[in-house]
Design a protein that fits this description.
This protein is mainly alpha-helical. It is built from five helices and five strands; from the N terminus they run αββαβββααα. A hairpin with a 6-residue loop joins strand 4 and strand 5.
Length: about 200
């Protein structure tokens, strides 16, 4: 499994001189061996490969990812300012779980479930007004953007009408100046109008 997670062939890369030597199969650190990017068609998208690296990095830094301690490595003791350590003090054979965060200096403890509940409640309380404000601001910006698109569409239509008028009024002049120029201009205007409608 570890070989698969480190094998860059899955993202389409050909690697050369990866191992230290014939007797030591431990791979060299990234950057000290040759990589030919995009040599094979990739089997794994690059964003998934990067996500895998990030997950492995986080596991090394904070340990297991399936922890019930949501605030692990985040909460600190108010008095001592040190990081609170998560602790499971559930008695063996008991169905319920006693989870808490404790300070290694002042020996203070706080129930994990209560703390989680308080933090989630505070997040909801503080984020709700911000989300409402963000929604309102987004709607205003979208309205402004729609108005600017309407103006742009109207300008393009006016240019198209002028082109059509010129074609009808001065057909000889257009032929002398070059019908190819007008044809290209018409196509460009049509493309611009279509683009503004699709946006």
């Amino acid at each position: 499994m570890d070989h698969i997670l480190h094998n860059r062939a899955y993202i389409g890369d050909l690697t050369w001189n990866v191992r230290n030597d014939i007797h030591n199969s431990k791979p060299k650190p990234l950057g000290s061996f040759t990589i030919m990017e995009g040599y094979y068609p990739p089997l794994v998208p690059s964003h998934l490969w990067m996500l895998k690296d990030k997950i492995r990095e986080n596991k090394k830094r904070i340990g297991k990812m399936d922890t019930p301690f949501l605030l692990r490595n985040i909460v600190h003791c108010k008095t001592c300012l040190v990081e609170l350590k998560p602790k499971d003090t559930s008695p063996s054979g008991y169905k319920g779980r006693y989870l808490n965060y404790s300070c290694s200096i002042c020996k203070g403890r706080i129930d994990a479930y209560e703390l989680h509940e308080d933090v989630i409640y505070n997040l909801k309380e503080n984020l709700s007004p911000l989300l409402i404000k963000a929604e309102s601001l987004t709607q205003k910006r979208l309205k402004k953007y729609r108005n600017s698109l309407r103006i742009e569409q109207e300008e393009i239509r006016q240019k198209q009408e002028r082109n059509l008028y010129n074609e009808r009024q001065f057909p000889n002049l257009i032929q002398r100046c070059g019908s190819k120029y007008y044809s290209t201009r018409k196509k460009r205007l049509k493309k611009s109008l279509l683009k503004s409608i699709l946006l």
